[in-house]
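Exam prep: given the inputs below (a chain plus flavin-adenine dinucleotide), describe the expected output before reading on.
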Amino acid sequence: MIPASFEYHRARTIDEALELLAKYGEDAKILAGGQSLLPMMKLRLASPGHLVDISEVAQLKELREADGLIRIGAAATETALLHSALLRGKCPLIGEAAAQIGDPQIRNRGTLGGNLAHGDPGNDHPSVMIALGASVIARGPAGERRLPMDGFYRGLYDTQLEPLELLTEIQVPTPPARSGAAYLKLKRKIGDFATAASAVQLSLGEGDTCARIGIALTNVAPMPLRLSGAEALLAGKRITAELIEQAAQIATGACDAADDFHGPSEYRAQMAGEMTRRALAGALERARRD
Ligand SMILES: Cc1cc2nc3c(=O)[nH]c(=O)nc-3n(C[C@H](O)[C@H](O)[C@H](O)COP(=O)(O)OP(=O)(O)OC[C@H]3O[C@@H](n4cnc5c(N)ncnc54)[C@H](O)[C@@H]3O)c2cc1C
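Solution:
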């Protein structure tokens, strides 16, 4: 299908992108990788009069570490995340999730910021960022604000971002030594969105007790689900097989998935539990080796 007509604008800087957004107001939309927006425009589910392309804004593609934070520009592509030595060394969970997104063409164009801003519960990065305790930086007419990923989603395709705000950076606390993580995603075939997926990031303290843990689920509710109950169960304890089993049951019980082409809701809830069971065991194993 062919989208409705629109005017295309290429921004070269963050300021230029913000000026264009302010000029065209709610008739404008940010275009990052276009891998979600363009299909929606072709289906006429979105018909913006103006597209502001941020994919060539160099500042939005930076990936660095400063002040205990890994700082990722919102227009960094999935491929850039996959090939980042910094992420591989300090926060492998992000690349592990990026590797499971779509296919190489989608990963070459799709961006981390677009994946988070879109608000699709099937997207993989939101739960990963919640498990990591990440925040995003948004800039708009009222200035700059920092939004924790936990609480960023208000519902299906609904986030805390205001229409004229640009998500500029994702900030992830650098995991300390003795950390481990895993992203377990069940999908029907390569390139699919998750039937159910679970992200776990944990750090071990004295006596191998759990010093910090983040657990979140993908695509089993209208928005990503942080498993605060399972986190509270495991925090401060030595993680045993029995505790992992209890955490998996909490995951199954927390789901609010629809019956759809991914499978019946009961099956997806059970799979969310299984993904959580495997992600916890994998993250623990990696933390012990770190
Ligand atoms: C066939 C197919 C399979 C896919 N499979 C997966 C998958 O398995 N897992 C997964 O996670 N995703 C999947 N995707 C989605 C893909 O990851 C998209 O790239 C992602 O959802 C959006 O990123 P984008 O950079 O392409 O954003 P765009 O499509 O350009 O934008 C998406 C939305 O976010 C807004 N936006 C973008 N950047 C910003 C910003 N910096 N600030 C504010 N708003 C912004 C846009 O205005 C738009 O509303 C798939 C897509 C396709 C087509």
